[in-house]
Amino acid sequence: MIRRSFxxxxxxxxxxxxxxxxASATLAWGPDITRTPHDPAPxxxxxxxxxxxxxxxxLNFYGSPGLLDTPxxxxxxxxxxxxxxxxxxxxxxxxxxxxxxxxxxxSFRYNGIRNLNLFGFSTYYDRGFDVRARLWKEGKYxxxxxxxxxxxxxxxxxxxxxxxxxxxxxxxxxxxRSGPGLLKLSAGLGWGRLGxxxxxxxxxxxxxxxxxxxxxxxLSYDQWFRGDFAPFGGIEWQPNDRWSxxxxxxxxxxxxxxQVSDVFERKSSLNFGAEYQYSNRTRLxxxxxxxxxxxxxxxxxxxxxxxxxxMLVPAAAPILPRSEWAVGENDWNQDWPxxxxxxxxxxxxxxxxxxxxxxxxxxxHFTGTEVELRYRNPRYQSEMQAVGRVARAMAATxxxxxxxxxxxxxxxxxxxxxxxxxxSDLEAQEFNPQASEAILAVSAISDAxxxxxxxxxxxxxxxxFSRSISPYTKPSYFxxxxxxxxxxxxxxxxxxxxxxxxxxxxALRQRLxxxxxxxxxxxxxLPHVRTDVAAYAQYGTTLENLYVMRxxxxxxxLYARASAGLFETMYGxxxxxxxxxxxxxxxxxxxxxxxxxQRDYDQRLGFRDYKTFTGHGSLYYQLGHxxxxxxxxxxxxxxxxxxxxxxxxxxxxxxxxxxxxxxxNVSAADFGEGSFDKGFRFRIPLAxxxxxxxxxxxxxxxxxxxxxxxxxxxxxGRLYGSIRTAHRNSLQEQRARFWE
Length: 740
Fold this sequence. Notes:
Blueprint: H1 2-18, H2 23-29, E1 81-88, E2 91-101, E3 104-113, E4 124-136, E5 144-150, E6 160-171, E7 181-192, E8 201-203, E9 227-238, E10 243-249, H3 255-260, E11 270-277, E12 282-289, E13 293-302, H4 340-356, E14 360-366, E15 370-376, H5 383-397, E16 404-411, E17 414-415, E18 418-422, H6 423-429, H7 435-441, E19 444-446, E20 456-457, E21 464-479, E22 482-497, E23 502-514, H8 533-536, E24 541-555, E25 558-566, E26 571-580, E27 587-599, E28 607-622, E29 627-635, E30 641-650, E31 656-664, H9 668-671, E32 677-685, H10 686-690, E33 697-702, H11 720-724, H12 728-733
Parallel strand pairs: 15-16
Antiparallel strand pairs: 1-2, 1-13, 2-3, 3-4, 4-5, 5-6, 6-7, 7-9, 8-9, 9-10, 10-11, 11-12, 12-13, 14-15, 14-20, 16-17, 16-18, 18-19, 21-22, 22-23, 23-24, 24-25, 25-26, 26-27, 27-28, 28-29, 29-30, 30-31, 31-32, 32-33
């Protein structure tokens, strides 16, 4: 109870801190702590402040914080993942925005422009990337200022650059119950699209309105902040936390759409709209734009730190100090276990206690004063939460003479690390207001040493057979004739673990419906290592994978994997990997080598003629703010050489949002559309959606264009992702979860 009260105090303090961070935070996000005459008197039991934050900034038609068709300087709450759809004048825009840091956001957009009638397409589809950086926060007198690059890489159909400032003001309440309103004023200067109407100056001469054609994918840095520039701006009034009214002056002339083509008629530079905050995550808007068009948007904002369903986890059992129950000399006898039967009894008691918390005992080793327990964690996203549950189970089942607990998480039969703590510290710190920091300070995290020869394994684990049936989806994106295709069906999977570290698995796939098989044929001049998607989608029943894998620990700080079989839809072969990852280091180094053969289109047991060797050296580094950097260099499936840079933000609850790009010795012309491989990925944990502990999740990787350059084989069981979660940096970041 004391610990729960402390958590509430810290949350309140953290929210109150927002009030002193400047006018920007106060007006946009500050909690409503004002008291009405009907509020309880100060000091009464009901007089706690009422925290009611205003809704987050609305998104414009490009998926970024803004008015209608122009941006504002606002930023979304850190880590927000926003998806929006907007439509007006024959133009549809699908937008994904991620607030990567409190001051930096990125966006990906897929556009469709009807009746553009350029480059051989009636409806022109295009992809674009945006980035926005806040230059300074709003203050008492100064506005918030942001710089943005819009559609900065590619054909440049919506390319623009801008500086924009936003200032917020409170307005009188419309009623006693509604609270004060909020007025936002925005003004800026734009180049490119945002400098094409009402220009007031020019820097560096003219620039093309629309590049079009070509392979795209190139940075247009030679055109940034060049050419005509023009002012834009607008006003937004939020009378309450539900409704918002907007008006703006747009500096986008829509030259290509209205003069080169006949997409719509632009009669005015003024736009108007109204938006409704339907829920905390959903916002809807309707608009009248450019004196001739009606438009609408639907916006959905998710934040990894705000689960859709509150987590419902059974409370951990309290720790009963030994002073309250260990009263006899036998309780403190260090000469144990005295028989194999006694060993079995304690093992089974510990296993039963772990099972109540959804954990599995792998092995246990006894001495008089020290016990090492190895466990599997199929339930909790946080390994530190699992460690805390294991520590409680050991305290509840082991004799009083056991003072030292060595807790070792295991994945694929390999010990990942060992957390060592004293039982007396566990008993003393449970109700310490600083319990999370205290238990970390008195615990040691070290490399998992080899398991003792006389350790006792669980009698339920090996050999082990499991099976499952689950739905699958397989999307295909950005075909100009149909931008989104999808196959759906079911997977029947089975696995067999004959001994620690060994794993045999396979999956049958049954496609039930879909249209991926009608995707466009490959026009790649490189070996078709990935672009024959349609050929692999022609068959209803396929063998998705069938392989044998072994994980082991060849030495201190070293981990190894060997695999053979059918790894994925398109490739089978042999694969080996070695990873160096000290338990207390943020750095890891790995090397992987694969010899693979391309599978037949029917995905049975046959192969095609294409064979290749592919391999990479990898550097992994854990940055701050949940960011993880990965750099791979080596040979790819098409025989090209180069490197891949990946940056992922990985949250302790299992959310992942990241991006990557690959550059190889393949030229942009040979690579084809997109010029080089790039994309983004995300993973949403089921526990975040369902509110129940679960390690599973739904993940997706989206490439603007799937080509053959810079492609890797997908091998199950790669090492780094499963190992780093049980090492010091991850455990330290999740220290508060130890007591949950």
